[in-house]
Amino acid sequence: MGLVSPLFVIPLWADLLAVGVGALQGAMFASQFRDRRLDWLGVAIIGIVVGFGGGLLRDLLLNVELAPLQSNWYVAVATGAALLGMLLERVLSKLSRIITALDALTIGLFGAIGTTKALSLGLPPVAAVFVGVLAAVGGSILRDVLLTLPIALMHVGSLYALAAAGGAVAIAGLLEFGVDVFVAAGIGVALTFVIRILSVLFGWSLPEQRAITRLPKLPPLPAMPGRRRQSATVEVERGRVVTTATGIIHLHATTAAIPVVSDAPGAEPRVRRRSPIPGASRARR
C-alpha cells in the first residue's frame, strides 16, 4: 500500500497556485531579455510554459491525464499571471530578490505536488522523489530551451535541483512516519524554499566537473616466498652496492654495469676492471 491514500487528489487550488506562481516568475524572467524583443504573446508563452512545464512532465511520467488540460482555469490563471509578471517586471525587478523568492516557491510547490501525486499512485519513495524533482525543474528547463539559453540546471550555480530533492525526500520520509500529507507537503515546500534562498545568499553550489589526472601509486608487491634474496647487490640511487673481500663498493649509475665475478663457489666476489687495451681485461682483488 502506498504512503498516500490512492483516493488522495491534489486540490485544484494548490495546483493552480503552483501554475500561477510559475507563470508569474517565468514571465518576469523572460521580460529581462529586452534584446530579444519579445512581444506580449512571446512573454505569455514563456510564462505559460513555465507554469505548465512541471505538471506536464509529471503527468507524462505517471502516465495519467494531463492535469493542465482538464480545466479551463489552468490556461486562464497561467495567462493572467504571465501578463501580470510582464507588466510588473520593472516594478518588481527593483526588489532584486523577488524573482529568486518566486523561483524558490515555484520549485517547492511543484516538487511537493509531484512527490505526493506519485506516492498516491503507488510509486516507491525513490521513484516518487525523482518525479517530484523533475516536476520542480521541468518548467525552468523548457524556459531556457525556448529562450536559447544554457540550461541553468546543468551548470555551476546556486543549488536548484538539490533544493527540490531535499524537499521531496523530506515529504517521502515524513509520510513514511504517518505525518498528514498536507503537513508533510508544507514542510517540504518550506525546506526547498530555505535551501534555495540560502544557496543564493551564501553562494552554495556543487563543485565543477573534474577528472582524475594522476592515479595513486600502488605499493610494491611483496617478495615471493622461497625466492633467494640477492643481498650482495642492492640498488642505491640507480647504482648498486657490491660486497667484496676488501669491503663494500658503492657503484655509481654510470659504473653499475661492471660485472662481478668469483673464482670458485663460496669465494668472495671481485670486481672486474676493464682495461683500455683490448684483450687485457683483468680481475682485481
TrEMBL record:
Region entry Disordered, spans: 265-285
The entry's keywords: Cell membrane, Membrane, Transmembrane, Transmembrane helix
InterPro entries, per the entry: Gly_transporter
Membrane-spanning parts: 12-31, 38-57, 69-88, 95-115, 121-142, 149-175, 181-204
GO (cellular component) term, any one: plasma membrane
Keyword Ribosomal protein attached: no
Compartments (UniProt record): Cell membrane
Membrane topology listed for this record: Multi-pass membrane protein
Domain Glycine transporter residue range list: 12-89, 101-173
Record-stated family: Belongs to the UPF0126 family.
Name recorded for this polypeptide: Putative membrane protein YeiH
Organism in which the protein naturally occurs: Microcella alkaliphila
